C-alpha cells in the first residue's frame, strides 16, 4: 500500500511539474501576442489620424472654396435676374443661404477632425496661441526638432497640453505654467503649474475624484501606445507628464506619404499649393 501511495505521489508531482513547465513555456508566447496586439492597435490608430489629416485638407481646401465660389455665382445670378425678383430672387437667396450654412458646417467638420492650428501654425506656435491669457504666464519650450512629427502624436500632444492648460485656466488663473516638450524615440510632454494642485484627497494619498478631462488625457496618450500621469507637486502645483512613442506612428506616416515628383515635392502638397 505504501508503495502505491509513493508511486501516486511521484506521478502527481511529475504532473504538477509538467503543468508548471507548460505554463512557464506559454508566458513568452502570451507576452509576444500581447506586444503584437498593442503594436497593431497603435498602427491602426496612427493610420486613422493620417486619414483624418488628409480628409481635413480635402474638405477645407478643396470642397470649401468650391462651395464658396458657387455662392458667389448665385449672387451674380440674383443681380442679373433682378428684373424678375418675384420669380427668382427669393429662390436664389434661399439657395445662397443654404450654401453658406453648408460651408460653415464643412469647416466645423474639418476643424473637428484635426485642430487647424496645427497645420496653420505648427505644434509649438499652436500651443503658444492657445496659452495666451491662460494664466499669469506660460512658457512653452521644445527640446529637439519639432518638424515632421507624426500626425497622431502631434494631435495627442496638442490635446493633452490643451486640456492641461484649460484646467490651469479654470482652477489656477493666478499661477504660472511651463510647457516642456522633448523628442528622442518618444515625444515627452510636461505641463507644470504653480496652482493649488490636485484635490486634497489625492494629496493625502487617497484616490483622485474621477474627472473627464484627466481620463481623456490618459486615453489620448494610450491611443498612440504611450502613457500619461497627473500628480501634485510638493509645495503646490499640478504636473502632467506624457510619453508618446514615435515609431509606430512614423511607420504609418511613411506608408501613407504621397509619391514625390522629381524635385522631391509631395504630389498632394504640390496640388494644394497650385504648383
UniProtKB/TrEMBL annotation:
Basic and acidic residues bias spans: 258-275
Organism in which the protein naturally occurs: Actinomadura fibrosa
Limits of the Signal transduction histidine kinase subgroup 3 dimerisation and phosphoacceptor domain: 51-118
Keyword Protein transport tagged: no
Record keywords, A-Z: Cell membrane, Kinase, Membrane, Signal, Transferase, Transmembrane, Transmembrane helix, Two-component regulatory system
Record-given protein name: Sensor histidine kinase
Molecular function in Gene Ontology: kinase activity
Residue ranges, annotated region (Disordered): 192-212, 251-275
